[in-house]
């Protein structure tokens, strides 16, 4: 991996950590808080592509695992990863990879609606599928009950998908971090 790639990976791990400085919004009916960090997940995949985006979130998850207080509310440690919100955090590298893969595949035909759809596929559907399933198992609650808790996250996640799509499209126009040949390789 080139030094430039390592810098991008580290920068986006830091961006997701910085988004953790925003306080979490706790809801009385679920142990999983609303945070701004999934915005960083979507942005990492859409700006860096599959490999670098996924790697940046993998590094972030490793930081959480070793106890760095990089999650919203200053949380970190293995206890978080095996708790009710662990599945959501563990899904982030996969989500960023999927978003990045789709962005690379459609690089030449990329527009805002496509990026928003890719963000929803990776940053909402995949994150929810893994996170809700994990939460259901850890809390010993039926899957549909855990899924009903997550309905509260949908409006904010849709807004995050749109805003990260707008930003990613502007970065693509002014300073593309994904090379055009990467999109051709993925197709």
From TrEMBL:
<keyword id="KW-0813">Transport</keyword>
<dbReference type="Pfam" id="PF02632">
    <property type="entry name" value="BioY"/>
</dbReference>
<feature type="transmembrane region" description="Helical">
    <location>
        <begin position="80"/>
        <end position="103"/>
    </location>
</feature>
<keyword id="KW-1003">Cell membrane</keyword>
<feature type="transmembrane region" description="Helical">
    <location>
        <begin position="150"/>
        <end position="171"/>
    </location>
</feature>
<feature type="transmembrane region" description="Helical">
    <location>
        <begin position="57"/>
        <end position="74"/>
    </location>
</feature>
<dbReference type="InterPro" id="IPR003784">
    <property type="entry name" value="BioY"/>
</dbReference>
<keyword id="KW-0812">Transmembrane</keyword>
<protein>
    <recommendedName>
        <fullName>Biotin transporter</fullName>
    </recommendedName>
</protein>
<keyword id="KW-1133">Transmembrane helix</keyword>
<feature type="transmembrane region" description="Helical">
    <location>
        <begin position="7"/>
        <end position="26"/>
    </location>
</feature>
<feature type="transmembrane region" description="Helical">
    <location>
        <begin position="32"/>
        <end position="50"/>
    </location>
</feature>
<comment type="similarity">
    <text>Belongs to the BioY family.</text>
</comment>
<keyword id="KW-0472">Membrane</keyword>
<feature type="transmembrane region" description="Helical">
    <location>
        <begin position="115"/>
        <end position="138"/>
    </location>
</feature>
